[in-house]
Design goal:
2 strands, two-stranded antiparallel ribbon, mainly alpha, MetI-like fold
Length: 277
Protein backbone atom coordinates (compact mmCIF):
# COMPACT_ATOMS: atom_id res chain seq x y z
CA UNK A 1 0.00 0.00 0.00
CA UNK A 2 1.30 3.44 -0.86
CA UNK A 3 0.50 7.05 0.00
CA UNK A 4 0.63 9.58 -2.86
CA UNK A 5 1.99 13.01 -1.95
CA UNK A 6 1.32 16.31 -3.73
CA UNK A 7 4.63 16.06 -5.51
CA UNK A 8 3.40 12.91 -7.23
CA UNK A 9 5.86 10.59 -5.50
CA UNK A 10 4.51 7.49 -3.80
CA UNK A 11 5.68 6.75 -0.26
CA UNK A 12 5.05 3.27 1.16
CA UNK A 13 2.94 3.39 4.28
CA UNK A 14 5.33 0.95 5.86
CA UNK A 15 7.88 3.77 6.08
CA UNK A 16 5.66 6.18 8.00
CA UNK A 17 3.60 3.59 9.84
CA UNK A 18 6.06 2.96 12.72
CA UNK A 19 6.58 6.69 13.30
CA UNK A 20 2.84 7.36 13.29
CA UNK A 21 2.24 4.42 15.63
CA UNK A 22 4.94 5.64 18.01
CA UNK A 23 3.46 9.15 18.12
CA UNK A 24 -0.04 7.75 18.59
CA UNK A 25 0.93 5.49 21.51
CA UNK A 26 3.42 7.70 23.33
CA UNK A 27 2.11 11.20 22.55
CA UNK A 28 -1.48 11.37 21.31
CA UNK A 29 -2.94 8.78 23.68
CA UNK A 30 -1.26 10.15 26.87
CA UNK A 31 -2.23 13.69 25.87
CA UNK A 32 -5.85 12.63 25.32
CA UNK A 33 -5.77 10.84 28.67
CA UNK A 34 -4.56 13.98 30.44
CA UNK A 35 -7.23 16.07 28.73
CA UNK A 36 -9.89 13.56 29.75
CA UNK A 37 -8.72 13.53 33.38
CA UNK A 38 -8.82 17.32 33.53
CA UNK A 39 -12.60 17.34 32.94
CA UNK A 40 -13.68 14.01 34.47
CA UNK A 41 -11.73 13.54 37.72
CA UNK A 42 -13.45 13.10 40.14
CA UNK A 43 -16.60 13.88 38.12
CA UNK A 44 -17.34 15.43 34.72
CA UNK A 45 -17.04 19.20 35.10
CA UNK A 46 -14.83 22.21 34.42
CA UNK A 47 -14.22 22.86 38.11
CA UNK A 48 -10.45 22.39 37.84
CA UNK A 49 -10.14 25.10 35.20
CA UNK A 50 -12.46 27.34 37.21
CA UNK A 51 -10.27 26.81 40.26
CA UNK A 52 -7.16 27.50 38.23
CA UNK A 53 -8.31 30.84 36.81
CA UNK A 54 -9.95 32.05 40.01
CA UNK A 55 -6.97 31.38 42.28
CA UNK A 56 -4.33 34.08 42.50
CA UNK A 57 -1.68 31.52 43.53
CA UNK A 58 -2.07 29.53 40.33
CA UNK A 59 -2.22 32.56 38.07
CA UNK A 60 0.89 33.95 39.76
CA UNK A 61 2.64 30.62 39.20
CA UNK A 62 1.71 30.73 35.52
CA UNK A 63 2.95 34.32 35.28
CA UNK A 64 6.19 33.38 37.06
CA UNK A 65 6.71 30.56 34.55
CA UNK A 66 6.42 32.89 31.57
CA UNK A 67 8.51 35.58 33.26
CA UNK A 68 11.28 33.08 34.04
CA UNK A 69 11.19 31.69 30.50
CA UNK A 70 11.51 35.22 29.10
CA UNK A 71 14.43 36.13 31.40
CA UNK A 72 16.28 32.92 30.59
CA UNK A 73 15.69 33.42 26.86
CA UNK A 74 17.04 36.98 26.93
CA UNK A 75 20.11 35.91 28.94
CA UNK A 76 20.79 33.03 26.55
CA UNK A 77 20.52 35.40 23.59
CA UNK A 78 22.87 37.98 25.13
CA UNK A 79 25.44 35.29 25.88
CA UNK A 80 24.86 33.02 22.92
CA UNK A 81 24.91 35.50 20.05
CA UNK A 82 28.48 36.77 20.66
CA UNK A 83 29.65 33.20 21.23
CA UNK A 84 28.05 31.98 18.00
CA UNK A 85 29.54 34.98 16.18
CA UNK A 86 33.03 34.12 17.45
CA UNK A 87 32.55 30.49 16.42
CA UNK A 88 31.44 31.33 12.90
CA UNK A 89 33.46 34.46 12.09
CA UNK A 90 36.60 34.07 14.20
CA UNK A 91 39.75 32.06 13.42
CA UNK A 92 38.96 28.49 12.43
CA UNK A 93 40.90 26.95 15.32
CA UNK A 94 39.11 29.16 17.86
CA UNK A 95 35.78 28.26 16.31
CA UNK A 96 36.50 24.53 16.58
CA UNK A 97 37.54 24.86 20.23
CA UNK A 98 34.42 26.85 21.12
CA UNK A 99 32.23 24.42 19.19
CA UNK A 100 33.75 21.50 21.11
CA UNK A 101 33.10 23.26 24.44
CA UNK A 102 29.48 23.95 23.53
CA UNK A 103 28.99 20.39 22.29
CA UNK A 104 30.44 18.88 25.46
CA UNK A 105 28.15 21.06 27.56
CA UNK A 106 25.20 20.03 25.40
CA UNK A 107 25.99 16.32 25.73
CA UNK A 108 26.47 16.48 29.49
CA UNK A 109 23.37 15.50 31.44
CA UNK A 110 21.43 18.53 32.66
CA UNK A 111 21.00 16.75 35.99
CA UNK A 112 24.79 16.57 36.38
CA UNK A 113 25.09 20.26 35.51
CA UNK A 114 22.37 21.13 38.01
CA UNK A 115 24.12 19.28 40.83
CA UNK A 116 27.39 20.94 39.79
CA UNK A 117 25.79 24.34 40.37
CA UNK A 118 24.55 23.15 43.77
CA UNK A 119 28.15 22.37 44.70
CA UNK A 120 29.52 25.62 43.28
CA UNK A 121 26.92 27.83 44.96
CA UNK A 122 26.64 25.84 48.20
CA UNK A 123 27.94 26.85 51.61
CA UNK A 124 31.01 24.60 51.19
CA UNK A 125 31.62 25.33 47.53
CA UNK A 126 34.30 27.35 45.76
CA UNK A 127 32.19 30.51 45.81
CA UNK A 128 31.96 30.43 49.60
CA UNK A 129 35.68 29.58 49.84
CA UNK A 130 36.60 32.53 47.62
CA UNK A 131 34.46 34.85 49.74
CA UNK A 132 36.15 33.58 52.91
CA UNK A 133 39.60 34.21 51.42
CA UNK A 134 38.59 37.81 50.71
CA UNK A 135 37.19 38.20 54.23
CA UNK A 136 33.65 38.52 52.98
CA UNK A 137 30.56 36.69 54.26
CA UNK A 138 29.50 33.75 52.13
CA UNK A 139 26.79 34.89 49.68
CA UNK A 140 23.46 33.11 50.12
CA UNK A 141 22.71 32.52 46.44
CA UNK A 142 21.68 28.87 46.48
CA UNK A 143 17.94 28.19 46.51
CA UNK A 144 17.15 31.61 45.08
CA UNK A 145 15.68 32.89 41.85
CA UNK A 146 19.17 33.85 40.73
CA UNK A 147 20.58 30.35 41.13
CA UNK A 148 17.60 28.81 39.35
CA UNK A 149 17.86 31.18 36.40
CA UNK A 150 21.64 30.73 36.29
CA UNK A 151 21.30 26.96 36.10
CA UNK A 152 18.66 27.11 33.36
CA UNK A 153 20.72 29.59 31.32
CA UNK A 154 23.71 27.25 31.53
CA UNK A 155 21.62 24.26 30.42
CA UNK A 156 19.74 26.01 27.59
CA UNK A 157 22.57 28.16 26.26
CA UNK A 158 23.82 25.46 23.81
CA UNK A 159 20.38 25.41 22.14
CA UNK A 160 20.64 29.12 21.45
CA UNK A 161 24.25 28.92 20.29
CA UNK A 162 23.63 26.02 17.91
CA UNK A 163 20.53 27.65 16.39
CA UNK A 164 22.29 30.98 15.77
CA UNK A 165 25.57 29.34 14.69
CA UNK A 166 23.80 27.22 12.05
CA UNK A 167 22.43 30.37 10.38
CA UNK A 168 25.62 32.39 10.72
CA UNK A 169 27.60 29.64 9.01
CA UNK A 170 25.49 30.07 5.87
CA UNK A 171 26.00 33.84 5.57
CA UNK A 172 28.32 34.56 2.66
CA UNK A 173 31.41 36.59 3.69
CA UNK A 174 31.16 38.34 0.32
CA UNK A 175 28.15 40.31 1.56
CA UNK A 176 30.16 42.10 4.25
CA UNK A 177 33.07 42.62 1.89
CA UNK A 178 30.69 44.21 -0.59
CA UNK A 179 29.38 46.54 2.11
CA UNK A 180 32.94 47.47 3.09
CA UNK A 181 33.86 48.13 -0.54
CA UNK A 182 30.95 50.57 -0.70
CA UNK A 183 32.36 52.54 2.24
CA UNK A 184 30.48 51.01 5.18
CA UNK A 185 32.48 50.88 8.45
CA UNK A 186 32.79 47.42 10.06
CA UNK A 187 30.05 48.06 12.61
CA UNK A 188 27.71 49.50 9.97
CA UNK A 189 28.32 46.45 7.77
CA UNK A 190 27.50 44.21 10.72
CA UNK A 191 24.37 46.18 11.64
CA UNK A 192 22.98 46.53 8.12
CA UNK A 193 24.08 43.24 6.55
CA UNK A 194 25.15 40.52 8.99
CA UNK A 195 22.66 41.12 11.79
CA UNK A 196 19.50 41.03 9.62
CA UNK A 197 20.72 37.85 7.91
CA UNK A 198 21.32 36.19 11.29
CA UNK A 199 17.87 37.06 12.70
CA UNK A 200 16.27 33.75 11.60
CA UNK A 201 18.74 31.93 13.85
CA UNK A 202 17.99 34.33 16.69
CA UNK A 203 14.26 33.73 16.35
CA UNK A 204 14.68 29.96 16.16
CA UNK A 205 16.96 29.93 19.19
CA UNK A 206 14.60 32.10 21.23
CA UNK A 207 11.68 29.83 20.34
CA UNK A 208 13.58 26.68 21.36
CA UNK A 209 14.82 28.12 24.64
CA UNK A 210 11.50 29.71 25.58
CA UNK A 211 9.35 26.64 24.91
CA UNK A 212 11.77 24.26 26.65
CA UNK A 213 12.02 26.58 29.65
CA UNK A 214 8.23 26.67 30.04
CA UNK A 215 8.23 23.01 31.05
CA UNK A 216 11.49 22.88 33.03
CA UNK A 217 11.20 21.05 36.33
CA UNK A 218 14.41 19.55 37.77
CA UNK A 219 16.64 22.64 37.73
CA UNK A 220 14.19 25.13 39.33
CA UNK A 221 13.15 22.43 41.83
CA UNK A 222 16.75 21.80 42.95
CA UNK A 223 18.20 25.29 42.67
CA UNK A 224 15.25 27.63 43.02
CA UNK A 225 13.17 29.09 45.80
CA UNK A 226 9.71 27.77 46.71
CA UNK A 227 8.45 31.35 46.38
CA UNK A 228 9.25 31.26 42.65
CA UNK A 229 7.55 27.97 41.85
CA UNK A 230 7.04 27.22 38.16
CA UNK A 231 4.00 25.46 36.78
CA UNK A 232 5.87 22.17 36.30
CA UNK A 233 6.68 22.14 40.02
CA UNK A 234 3.04 22.87 40.84
CA UNK A 235 1.97 19.92 38.69
CA UNK A 236 4.43 17.63 40.48
CA UNK A 237 3.21 18.90 43.86
CA UNK A 238 -0.42 18.19 43.00
CA UNK A 239 0.43 14.62 41.96
CA UNK A 240 3.07 13.63 44.52
CA UNK A 241 1.78 15.38 47.64
CA UNK A 242 -1.96 15.81 47.10
CA UNK A 243 -2.76 13.01 44.61
CA UNK A 244 -5.00 15.47 42.78
CA UNK A 245 -4.69 14.05 39.28
CA UNK A 246 -7.58 16.07 37.89
CA UNK A 247 -6.18 19.47 38.85
CA UNK A 248 -2.67 18.42 37.84
CA UNK A 249 -4.07 17.41 34.45
CA UNK A 250 -5.77 20.79 34.04
CA UNK A 251 -2.46 22.51 34.79
CA UNK A 252 -0.78 20.31 32.21
CA UNK A 253 -3.43 21.21 29.64
CA UNK A 254 -2.92 24.92 30.30
CA UNK A 255 0.85 24.51 29.91
CA UNK A 256 0.36 22.57 26.67
CA UNK A 257 -2.05 25.18 25.29
CA UNK A 258 0.35 28.00 26.21
CA UNK A 259 3.24 26.24 24.48
CA UNK A 260 1.09 25.48 21.44
CA UNK A 261 0.03 29.14 21.30
CA UNK A 262 3.66 30.24 21.19
CA UNK A 263 4.31 27.80 18.33
CA UNK A 264 1.21 28.95 16.46
CA UNK A 265 2.28 32.58 16.72
CA UNK A 266 5.72 31.63 15.44
CA UNK A 267 4.17 29.67 12.58
CA UNK A 268 1.90 32.58 11.74
CA UNK A 269 4.75 35.09 11.65
CA UNK A 270 7.66 33.06 10.29
CA UNK A 271 6.53 29.55 9.35
CA UNK A 272 7.27 26.52 11.48
CA UNK A 273 9.31 24.94 8.66
CA UNK A 274 12.03 27.55 9.20
CA UNK A 275 13.07 25.72 12.36
CA UNK A 276 14.68 23.10 10.13
CA UNK A 277 15.91 25.34 7.29
Amino acid sequence: MTLRLRSGRAVPLVLIGPACGYLLIFFVFPLARVLLLSVTDPRPSLMHFTRLFHGTLYLRTLLTTFETALIVTVCCLLLGYPLAYAMSQGPRRLGLVLLAIVAISFWTSFLVRTYAWMVILGSSGPLAAASAMLGLPAPAVLFTTFSSDLGMVHILLPYMVMAVYAVMQRIEPAYRRAASSLGAPPFAAFREVFLPLSLPGVINGCLLVFTICLGFYVTPALLGSPRDMMISQLIAQQIEDLLDWGFASSLSVVLFVATAAVLLVYNRLFGIQRLWN
